[in-house]
Amino acid sequence: MATQLPEGLATPALVVDLDVMTGNVTRMAEASRAGGFTLRPHAKSHKCAHIARLQLRSGARGLSVATISEAEAFARAGVDDLFIASPVWPDAGKAQRLRRLADGVALRVGVDSVAGARRLGDAVRGGARPVEALVEVDSGARRTGVPPQAAGEVGQAAAEAGLRVVGAFTFPGHGYGHAPEARERAARDEERALGEAAEALRDAGLEAGVLSGGSTPTVGRWRPGTVNELRPGVYVFNDATQLAIGTCAAGDLALAAVATVISVPAPDRFVLDVGSKVLGSDRSPWVRGRGLLPAFPEATITSLWEHHAVVRLPAGVRGPALGSTVAVVPSHVCTPVNLADELLVVQHGEVVDRWPVTARGANT
Ligand SMILES: Cc1ncc(COP(=O)(O)O)c(C=O)c1O
């Protein structure tokens, strides 16, 4: 956080440094433009219509989202080009919601199985506008996605089910390694996997115009090649994990939870009024403790309770005074944002705006 903390905040609160966040958004948009990539940021990290508009104004083509309800929230906020970057398995209710969505926005959905493609095709059949599909391939994260060579078979099933197949995507989650080599390797894996997927789609007589990759750790590793669309999410705020793995600098951290020191039970320990119900409980193997206190770099959050963070100090190091406020940078920013009603927007030490977390809890 570049700015000083505002005074008199009711804590805990999530604050966003407007200048740092805007800088992160602008730099990513410029880098994508310069590299010839379409930028379709993943909105699960901010879930906020204000930030989505900033990304779109800066040149993002549309948004990636994780769920149908995130897509609905951003569609209501006026975003008209959305990619649900995950396979979905629509029941009757979800089928109806997908059709309604597709009537109002350009909608693209991930598919990674023949059965899933058929089910999605059945779900959206008869809608006013065609739904586009991207075949998800696994580039090494071992989450969702078929082997790249199987993209043709899934794509064909999607096309036969009435979907408009436009290409493939992958999520390089294995780029979250400590060494720069992990990111480099994951970026190369994406390039290779999407190249093979494109070939398999074309061999099946399908289009492979959209080859979408990129997460915050790998996005800076791109060179002009196969990939033509990027979907970073966390870069908007960054977090302690991105700092630890070297994806961002301390000056790029745009979001923190502001907490009050509510107890100093011992000289080497203090307790903050922020716990897992605000910070989330995601842990990163690369972050010491459960978050970062930039003003007290030697302090370690050793445990998070629901409403308390217990912080330890090395012998002889002074901590903050009882009643003072401190900033805590979360290990992984997406969960705290999802737990908050609003983001307090801060500039030059003042709260200048309050932005609702538009798609808070939109998990269905
Ligand atoms: C499918 C997909 N695309 C893009 C992203 C964005 O990556 P990151 O959060 O590393 O910025 C994610 C994150 O989980 C994802 O699941």
Automatic annotation (TrEMBL):
GO molecular function: alanine racemase activity
Domain D-serine dehydratase-like, residue spans: 254-347
Higher taxonomy: Bacteria, Bacillati, Actinomycetota, Actinomycetes, Kitasatosporales
Similarity field: Belongs to the DSD1 family.
Signal peptide residue numbers: none
Pfam families listed in its UniProt record: Ala_racemase_N (PF01168), D-ser_dehydrat (PF14031)
Species of origin: Streptomyces eurythermus
The protein's enzyme class: isomerase
Gene3D superfamilies: Alanine racemase (3.20.20.10), D-serine dehydratase-like domain (2.40.37.20)
Keyword field: Isomerase, Lyase
EC number: 5.1.1.1
Protein name: Alanine racemase
